[in-house]
Amino acid sequence: MPVPEAIGALAAPVMEAQAKPIRLPSLDGWRALSILMVLGAHTTHTTGFPEELRPLFLWVFDGALGVRFFFCISGFLITYLMLQEAERTGRMSLRDFYVRRTLRILPVYFLYLAVLLGLQCTTPLKLTAGEWAASLTFTADFASGQWLNGHLWSLAVEEQFYLLWRADWRPAGGWRCWCWPCRSCSRRCCGSPVICNGFPPHGNGW
């Protein structure tokens, strides 16, 4: 085979993998719809909201459905990215996966917590020790909270999903976590939204 053709044959799989989009623009609209549902539901809790419009808003803007929908989009996208990495490199790096998630979420998250700490030191706004512990360990979905940190439960659910879903992931012939309790827990936790009657557990709303 001539050299140019040989180079082209070797480069074709790489170029094909690179040509596949990592970002899915079509999901942006669905994200916007789910966020709009949550924001619309939250407006019913604002001061001065007309009581006669509350049933209509809660019917049109189903906040709980919006949150569940957003979780589905997030789970789909994370799985899609893992499949893309496996197809592109032949493997999936556990370290790189968690590094990407850490850089994407933790800087802004801890900046928000730093703002809360500043408010606690300078204003009457206070978080209890338990609320701080739940916020710092991404377990807010298992604890009670107030309006300052109650909304962090949804991010805690996502972080737990990232941890458990990736630990149990195994593409064809690929890596799988050796710890069977972790794998068993991941299946139950990742499947629980399908059978749960409502969330968050502590009843803070969404």
Structural write-up:
The longest helix has 29 residues. The C terminus is likely disordered. With 206 residues, the chain is mainly alpha-helical. The protein folds into 2 domains: 90 residues; 106 residues, no CATH class. The radius of gyration is 21 Å and the shape is flat. Helix 2 packs antiparallel against helix 4, helix 5 runs antiparallel to helix 7 and helix 7 packs across helix 8. The protein has 8 helices and no strands.
In brief, what are we looking at here?
By secondary structure, the chain is mainly α. The chain is built from eight helices and no strands.
- Mean pLDDT, rounded to whole units? 76
- Strand runs, count: 0
What is the count of helical runs? 8
Share of residues in strands: under 5%
Structural class, from helix and strand content?
Answer: mainly alpha
Order of helices and strands: HHHHHHHH
Number of domains: 2
Low-confidence stretches: 6-19, 172-199, 201-205
Radius of gyration: 21 Å
Helix content: 55-70%
How far apart are the first and last residues' alpha carbons, in Å? Answer: 62 Å
Spatial shape: flat
Q: What multimeric state do the chains show?
A: single chain
- Biggest sheet details: none
